[in-house]
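Appendix B.2, paired examples.
Example (i):
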Amino acid sequence: MTDFGTNLVAMVTPMQPGGTLSEPGLAGLLDHLLATGCDGLVVGGTTGESPTLTEREAAGLVRSVVAQAGSRARVLAGVGTYDTAASIRRARAAEAAGADGLLLVCPYYSRPTQAGVIAHCLAVADATELPVMLYDVPARAGLAMTPETLVELAAHPRIRAVKDAKGDLFEAMTVMTRTGLAYYCGIDELNLPYLACGAAGLVSVVANVAADRTAALIEAVHRSDLGRAREIQASLLPLTDAIMRSGPGVTMAKAVLAELGVIPHATVRLPLVETTPTNLPDFGQEFEVRAARSA
């Protein structure tokens, strides 16, 4: 296991119909995720609806997940915002709540220079004793972390990994060969290519439903069984399409989990709106059986 595990799930945040956080829903989701093979839990990231979580809610979620997961999985707290001071507060609160590490997204919306990105990330990394996984997601942040920026940040002793949602394998391999950063694929459609190129693992939205399959994919690549890995990746295509390509991943993942009975409600907070995956019948029966067994 790395600092963060290998089969990480970008957890949804279960909510009641009125939008309040659901402790029973969270407990049921965690039972499901731990039973199906997640060894890393990312709490309060994009899929956890971080922009709508208060600092108090975010810290409380970390505390609850740490208490239930115990030693069975690493817990990473999403702490990045476009405000460095707020990110530092969230990082310190996550450390106090027992998190094992931090997920730090590239500062979004304000579109700083690369010098600003570096200063922001170093300030947050300096604020706690926890290892940091950077999150490079230009489609959401409005800018990318350049390879030169990642190489410079890798010199910080607590910056250990990158969640890559950029999708540029050339740049990923360039940084991997020039640093000791552990790479994690942050695009479910590209899990197999990233693993084949040396990624340490995945931070997967699809793993909310199919963590056993993402675990099997990682294992197959580690065994150098490319044929089996291709079979597993292909078997995930309908689910990946439903969750990641039919609408916002957060809303679609919650809709599938609610349909399968893993969480009681598919509630999301505005500006997201609840939805239903129209192609669920294509794979619903198979995943319903697996969800019931892991509940």
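Example (ii):
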Amino acid sequence: MDRQIMQQLNQLIDQGKEVALVMVSSTSGSAPRDEGSMMLVDREGNVLAGTIGGGNIEHTARKDAAECLKRRQNKTFHYELTMADRPDALGMACGGISDVVVKVFYNNDPLIICGAGHVGQALYGVAQYLPLDTIIIDNREEYANQDNFPQARGIYAGDMAQLLSDLDVTENASIVIITHGHLHDIEVLDAAIKTPARYIGMIGSRTKVRYCFDELIKRGVDKQLLDKVYSPIGLNIGGETPGEIAVSILAEILMVKYDRDGRPLKKDQK
């Protein structure tokens, strides 16, 4: 059974799925399952394979494993299998103790770059140094190809708005809109705001941004959806070259991810 669980774990990892391996690392006294018992749990707390004994211990471990996946954190949990009035007591009559290790396997956050021109290529290049999986979208095959983006997780050429709509965009994704024309920007932005992406940014001057927003509002797009768009894109660090713009954009993406304000750390000195 354990071998089957490990085989399924490897399959899930190969498929790019996020999964937690939950294993009983030690027991003392009476416990539902012995050391080494394992199960696989997804982000919603569903058991994909295996068991560590059912009942309250498994129910609690499922919730803890799901939280570990969301936090991308490995952790050991101490479960007291008694009726005692303590936080770590699970209301079980077994009377023993189980330590359970949760090991999480997850993907890097997706960075979806809509536009494979100079800034898109610079953004891709700098992103290689960060825990990001880049996905490239453009309507020009001469730009969106393996030669320009050899390490990209995915490269798609065609109708950019449709391609973005077809992707399974997750809440930990960042979408950067840097196409080669404002008409493309409008269509891609319309598709982007319908996703749960954590970060959506669009390049352009304030005049262009206002025009794009106004066009979407005319179509009936809720202004509140546009309020979550970071545009003009990037932090105000100066510089106009593609590489400098890329650094500015990625700095803003990290600022949003970690819920920081982007100010210099020196400002925190007393």
